[in-house]
Amino acid sequence: MIYLDNAATSFPKPPEVIRAVIGAMEKIGANPGRAGHRLSLAAGRIVWNCREELARMLDVPNPENIVFGSNCTDALNLAIYGSVSEGDHVITTALEHNSVLRPINGMAHRGMITWTMLTPGGCGVVTAEQVKGAITSKTRLVVVNQASNVVGLAQPVEDIAKVTRRAGVTLLVDAAQSLGVLPVSPEKAGVDMVAFPGHKGLLGPFGTGALWIREGVKVRPLKEGGTGSSSESMLQPDEMPEALESGTLNMAGIAGLMVGTRYVRLRRQEIYEQERGLSDAMWEGLQNIHGVCTLTTRRPDVGVVSFNVGGFTSGEVANKLDVKYGIATRGGLHCAPAVHTHLGTLERGAVRASVGHNTTRAEVDALLKAVCEIAREAS
Ligand SMILES: Cc1ncc(COP(=O)(O)O)c(C=O)c1O
Predict the structure, then answer these.
(1) Residue 360 needs a FRET pair 20 to 30 A away by CA distance; which of 1, 64, 66, 197 works?
(2) Substitution site in 5, 99, 126, 157 for ligand 1 pocket (most atoms within 8 Å of beta carbon)
(3) What pairing do the DSSP bridges indicate for beta strands 170-174 and 89-93?
(4) What is the CATH number of the domain that holds 354?
(5) Nearest atom, ligand 1, residue 200 CA
């Protein structure tokens, strides 16, 4: 099987990630931070070491400002519901994933907030000027992804951060498709929160993700409960990360995430260049196939390329690629309906091919050859 669905989750994971998960289950297996015995302390050290590793990856000073969750959706929900209040205005873009659009639109639907969805201009992304023009006296939060999971283009996060800083508005960045590939330095850039999965670009296991919150930014907990600290109090502690991290953590997953993050941190530039080279080759190759149309008129910034072939639906093409050619891609809407509405592909969707740290040029060539044959069938 040729796996080109890394935007959904990265596969295969490095063997050391798998060994770390198994090692944590086999040799430690205790609840982190819940007891004073040596196994619980060892489990707690794994969690702390992962926090430190993630802080290095994000180039932020305080690992305690990183809150573990179960995926990027979890982190985004905490950031959105935990910071928006009745009467607030929220700004986001049509490039966002449903894990951003649904909480925001849901609150608006219930009459709790108002929101503005900015559509990308000719450059394929939303500009800082557009964000500036949409800010009102009620704007509390701006949410943008650093790179789109459909078109693979990077949004100008640093320019947007300058605008939100000046306006005193909180900026939440969804780094689901960028962390581990593009540089992310939120503290320096003036970003307030970054949500990210562990199971995509950081090469960690399923069930991992986290939210980084700038020192001083207030987020209300969505869950309250046991933290292993201040147990005499029946009120949720204020200290980070416990304030936002109740219940037993996914210690084995976090053990794998620590190793995956380190693996990526030591090779980030190399991974970026390799994935960028492959997505360039894929995008350029698709331009040369008669009957194929890519969703962007410029090369993507991360390893995601979406396209359609002749009169086939995206599901038909993805199915042919799987069944006949053994190539895993993803058809449909990629949980991002607004960008498909904007591009006129809401009905048909698109085929998304996304490369990872292990993808080879031969695999990209195999995709191009298969698409060429499918396009001939369509004509
Ligand atoms: C841009 C973007 N945001 C958020 C998510 C949600 O991530 P998760 O599946 O880890 O919840 C995804 C998943 O594909 C994504 O691509």
Answers:
(1) 197
(2) 99
(3) unpaired
(4) 3.90.1150.10
(5) 10
Residues above pLDDT 90, as percent of the chain = 97
Mean pLDDT of 37-45: 96
Q: Residue 123's pLDDT band (boundaries 50, 70, 90)? A: confident
Sequence-ordered list of residues with C-beta below 8 angstroms from that of 22, at least 6 positions apart, any chain = none
* Residue span of the structural domain in which 232 resides: 13-69+212-266
Q: Which residues does a 6 A CB cutoff place in the pocket of ligand 1? A: 8, 71-73, 97, 99, 145, 149, 174, 176-177, 197, 209
Same domain for 167 and 189, yes or no, is yes
Cross-strand partners of 89: 114, 139
What residue's CA is closest to ligand 1, atom 12? 176
In a domain? residue 247: yes
How many angstroms does the Cα of residue 97 sit away from the middle of ligand 1?
7
Distance 334 CA to ligand 1 centre (A): 9
Among 115, 151, 141, 71, smallest CA distance to 350 is for: 151
Same domain, 192 and 300: no
Amino acid letter, residue 19: R
Q: What is the DSSP string of 67-128?
A: EEESSHHHHHHHHHHTT--TT-EEEEETT--HHHHHHHHHHHHTTS-EEEEEPP-TTSS--H
Pocket test of ligand 1: the residue of 98, 182, 211, 335 to mutate, having most ligand atoms within 8 Å of its CB, is 335
Take atom 8 of ligand 1 and give the residue whose Cα is closest. Answer: 72
**Strand spans (E) along 111-185:** 114-118, 139-145, 170-174
Confidence label for 200 from pLDDT (cuts 50, 70 and 90): very high
Query: Bridge-partner residues for 123, per DSSP?
Result: none
pLDDT of 165 above 90? yes
